[in-house]
Write a structure and sequence with these properties.
globular, 7-stranded mixed β-sheet
């Protein structure tokens, strides 16, 4: 079912889009937190078509980070008739706003500056097969930026929110 309000597309869904030459294509790069702990690998980029810019990194979480959550995971599995969906391709993806990372072209590593490992570990994930909806977006933003609670009028189309701090070296 096509969502007519959809304004977010994976970069690879948009055949006529490519990354501006002065920016790095970070797909396949590692992403780490501020303490240099591995969060995962950048699987894709989510583009806001109206704004013609990347707004989210799509990250496939590192198995270690998922395993760190295994006690909670075990409960989830138990409640799901023993299907270990979380370790399959399942819910292993999260989105990270482009404005909250810095990119090091030399090491090909992306760093999440302000969001901690535990936050990533506990952030709600989505299954790449099913993409995500606005509700998921709100939930994730709320876990990253509790002070920017969506109820307070946060708008994911707000330019300031995605103020692309840096897409380059320091």
């Amino acid at each position: 079912m096509e969502n007519k309000d959809k304004n977010l597309y994976r970069l690879d869904e948009l055949s006529n889009y490519k990354i501006a030459s002065n920016y790095s294509d970070v797909r396949g790069w590692m992403i780490v937190d501020a303490d240099n702990r591995t969060i995962g690998k950048i699987d894709n980029l989510w583009v806001n078509k109206d704004m013609q810019r990347v707004v989210y990194l799509d990250v496939k979480l590192d198995k270690g980070l998922i395993d760190d959550n295994r006690n909670e995971v075990r409960d989830v599995i138990a409640n799901d008739n023993g299907k270990e969906f979380i370790y399959k391709e399942g819910d292993s993806h999260i989105i990270i706003p482009i404005g909250s990372v810095s990119i090091n072209k030399d090491t090909k590593i992306v760093m999440a500056n302000s969001i901690g490992y535990d936050t990533f570990r506990n952030t709600s994930r989505y299954n790449r097969q099913y993409n995500f909806d606005r509700e998921y977006e709100r939930k994730v933003m709320k876990s990253y930026y509790p002070e920017n609670d969506p109820e307070s009028g946060y708008d994911s189309n707000d330019d300031a929110f995605y103020n692309r701090r840096e897409f380059d070296n320091h």
